[in-house]
Amino acid sequence: MPGLAMDELNANSAAEEPSGSYTPHKENFAQQASPRSTLSPRSIQSDSIDLAIDGVVDTSIEQLYHNVCEMRSSDHSPSRASFYSYDGESRIDSELGHLVGDIVDLEITKEVVTENKEDFNANANGTTHEKDVVSSANGVHHMRKHRRSLGLKGIEERIAAGLDNPDLGPFLLKQTRDMISSGENPRKALDLALRALKSFEICANGKPSLEMVMCLHVLATIYCNLGQYNEAIPILERSIEIPVLEDGQDHALAKFAGCMQLGDTYAMMGQIENSLLFYTAGLEIQGQVLGETDPRFGETCRYVAEAHVQALQFDEAEKLCQMALDIHRGNGAPASIEEAADRRLMGLICDSKGDYEAALEHYVLASMAMAANDHEADVAAVDCSIGDAYLALARYDEAVFSYQKALTVFKSTKGENHPTVASVYVRLADLYNKIGKFKESKSYCENALRIFGKIKPGIPSEEIASGLIDVAAIYQSMNDLEKGLKLLKKALKIYGNAPGQQSTVAGIEAQMGVMYYMLGNYSDSYNIFKSAIAKFRASGEKKSALFGIALNQMGLACVQCYAINEAADLFEEARAILEKEYGPYHPDTLGVYSNLAGTYDAMGRVDDAIEMLEYVVVMREEKLGTANPDVDDEKRRLEELLKEAGRARNRKSRRSLETLLDTNSQLMKNNGIKVL
């Protein structure tokens, strides 16, 4: 994440993950909230290559911890210096190492005693295992032969007595970070971090301690690495309560770091609203301390803008991305790599909002900046985005040229069997499908699937799953629903029950529900929609437009299963969400109104149905014109309702409902569910 660094950031340092990319949880949270529907197979996972730029300021959590370690301490004692400088070991480090060695030996001794007890319980004579235990005990004795022999109780007392040593906490924290960096057993790192925290708590004596804050950050990271996100949350919440903003930049840094890491953790859990809440809080703190023209604040603006893109909140994303762009243009050299990163994201935002001309302009400027900075692979990635914009504008020849150009670079730099190459094949397949060249489209789909079927070590499985989802969407648009379902089931199996992936899984299930509906398997469609809706609710998606569309489509499945009351409830909930997210005049919102009118008619609520359908007709006339076929259909339906209302109602509501909703089932077929 972007750091609130006390020192100047090294803008020339290469980073594993780019500024603005969703580093800590990109492979999770990037696919959960794609701004694209997979019916146009360019999901955010495909676009993620567009946002990964080498050479921009490092925004990883590790860089943030480095920034925290650079905090100046008012205590310039040798022991403090040894904590901040890891090049050598001080005398106190050696003494603390002696104490920590006793801790490790205590653990080994306890293991030996436990093993001894278990072995003797399991074996009556105990001869063989006793020999092994004695050998292990001798090994422990040999490790400690230079120390005074202590009993278990004596070592524990010594450890407890040493916790009030102000140098023990920093030393243990350094050992913890070294273990994390070396990839050692995280359980051992967790134990050291907990001991360090205990020491910090004793030494702080109730006063704000920034070292304890950093320890809490490290402890939370270990819990996240272990997949124990629920353990990390209260740790991080505690970390942001300790710093006092009035006490200076160091405290602001600590609070900023806690907010951003808490946002990352919620994002990994799939809790988008909570994630954005803490990202926004962190951004405000950084802006207050550094000022809103500082390049580091610009980096954070882009970072949070990406989070809003992934949450489908494009207006807020555009605002933040424009702030980042203005800051970097004002502070950097012309055509800087930071500005290029901003423009790539802005291009994606404009593309997602349907402003393809503006998207194309941003992509071209980003490509020029990257070429000027010798970022060949990044230029190829932007070429894919340029091709997407050309495709949306129906400039097919130019789109093919851009895709083929990117394909050539990716094959030479990444290899012919890399998933990035497959992602370009998917784009080409989509293009040829759109222009009716189905043979070429299927050929590119097969090429992509061949690569996705050869999973290599180091390739994230989620990237393969995303590719399968994209190809499934193409097969769906070609009406090869069985093939599409097969691919979605494979993707679903890859994601499984991984933490933070429930929203993604819900999106896949919802798309499967669409396909089952199109196949006429309404019972299967209803059941899998029910599962998807439950996951959406659990993952915090219950207020998004995506969730509203899913509710509408589940309502259609309910209609076909004659669950009329349940359908009405779903349509009403979908209406409330889409009115808020899209407004009452959006085509999707009007489609839900129309479905709800048919449902009300089926329930005998004719007056409500007429009132709603009259509104739909007026809106469609204003938007589409009186001669549009969709307007004619709505008028015909309204006339039927008015005619029925003028005479006694008969019991044909279910049949009426099926007739009334027949046309609107196209909402499902045409729009589909945006699989994340």
TrEMBL record:
Keyword terms: TPR repeat
UniProt feature, compositional bias: Polar residues: 29-43
Keyword DNA repair: no
Region described as Disordered: spans on this chain: 1-43
Ranges: TPR repeats: 380-413
InterPro entries xrefs: TPR-like_helical_dom_sf, TPR_rpt
Domain of life, source organism: Eukaryota
Name recorded for this polypeptide: Nephrocystin-3
